Amino acid sequence: MYPSEGLQTALNKMREMSVDQNSIYHQYVPVVTESTTIGEFGAPILDTQNLNVLNDFVNLLQKVVYTAVYNKTFNNPLATLEGERMPLGRFIEDAMINPAKARGFNINDFAGILQKYEAEVATQYLAVNSDLQYCVTITRDKVRNAFTSWDNLEALISGYINSLYNGAYLTRYNQTKGLPLAAFERGAIKYEVIPDVVDEQTAKNLIRKMRADYSKFQIPSSRYNAWQDVKGEGAFALKTWSDPEDIMVMISADVESLIDVEVLASAFNMSKTDFIGRVIVVDDFSQYNDDGTVAVDGSMIKAVICDRSWFKIKTQDFAMDSWFNANNRTWQYYLNDVRMVNYSLFANAKVYTTAEPTPSGSDSE
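Request: output the structure for the sequence above.
Response:
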């Protein structure tokens, strides 16, 4: 049994890193080829007379896994909604200025030159609100056992990946798809109550509503953002609009199964190929506990149409920390994921739901 091509690439990448860092690993461990045996590769790593090689192996493994798996973030269908990284600070001040109001020209208005014209400025403050850690412990015995075969070594690495990174990706997915439900319950998103989507006809009715809103989103209006709803009485109406290329749709899998994507694409005056990138299918809009029970019921939400800028998601830190515990001969790994997961009161967005929110949210449109 010889190493797979992917495992060869990963292990040789570790050796290259060791050369670049001038660490001890590459001085003892050979380049892995398709004919290298697990014994040849593992002997210098498991040498009890030189535990520094084993320690260096585990440290390099962390970096290779991080480099390889970080690119898989984009496999999350909702990852495209994340904005630029947020390297510093805990808060973001987001401001939008309303279009200026016109006034009639008066040739005799000499006093107008001294008048102050206040702009209507809307401001929202967004905070880093998700600081999570994913932890795993690797024992020295577990590492030794992995070197009994190439399959076992690959299983150790893939298990490490699944435990840490997939845990983070699943949480990211659930956090993002939970934003429409959170906004709906807080009265922070426009919504329309519709009949349940149960067949082709009700699906077509939903498409017609989405087509109309797609067109309306492109016209400056205060009807499709939640600024005034959230700020309450006395707040000015904020006029916003969306560029057509920024408008997207999120639908549940059950609804998607009833909708002809070509029909939906034609409703938006787009080809099927171009439109696929605008539609994101989620399992549903509910949030679940670890045991699979419903934590927050979002089954009433069937679809969401919104400007991409409605999602305010930024990563501040996504990195691995580790340390070796000599007391019990284990390596502790901590994947840190610090993010801002929020939504905008400025951007156009609308939920299609079969029920009113509880508690009551923004007025139905």
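The mean pLDDT is 88.
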